[in-house]
Description:
By secondary structure, this protein is an alpha+beta fold. The protein is 51% helix and 15% strand.
Amino acid sequence: MTFDQIKEDLDLFSEWEDRYGYIIDLGKQISLPDEMKIDKNKVDGCASQVWLDMGWKESNKFKVFNIEGDSDALIVKGLIAILLSLYRGKTLVEAKAVDPKLEFEKLGLNSHLSSQRSNGLKSMIDQIKFFVNT
């Protein structure tokens, strides 16, 4: 699912409880095999356990960003799914141009996340940006 599709779907809900339900449903669509839930992929700074497996793969003679993720918390899994929609399949130049903070503002999520979830989201974004920029 693309980020634009997620935004359109979220815009259909007037109540935040319904939006959270949708985000949880997004998270149910992602997973990471247990063998990838290793220290190398663990995101520090999150209250829940979060893993991001990142790499570059060849696609039509271009290297594109391959990112998968998982968490033991339902809402966080949904946030990961949104991050995946922003980054997955992007070239290096495209991935560097992504501004996830701005994109999450478009969803109106920033003011509706607890401080722990906001800090966790920032940690995930920081880890992705570090990977993309190295």
